[in-house]
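Progress report, Aim 2. The chain analyzed during this reporting quarter is listed below.
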Amino acid sequence: MAPALPTHWSPEQALAVFECLHAMRESLWAMYGPQVQQAWREQLVPGQPQPAFDPNEPF
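Predicted structure tokens for the chain:
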């Protein structure tokens, strides 16, 4: 469920919040990207081992 947002914000205020959240998302991804990906995988398919990855295998 999405959080309720204020309906009284001006477009400028909404943009400021959007930009702040975007910057935070980029910082979080830079610092925790691989851990976030792993946690997301575990939520999508809990208890499954990661598939073997062969970097020499053509795609």
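The first helix runs from residue 11 to 44. Helices lie at 11-44. These observations will guide the mutagenesis work planned for the next reporting period.
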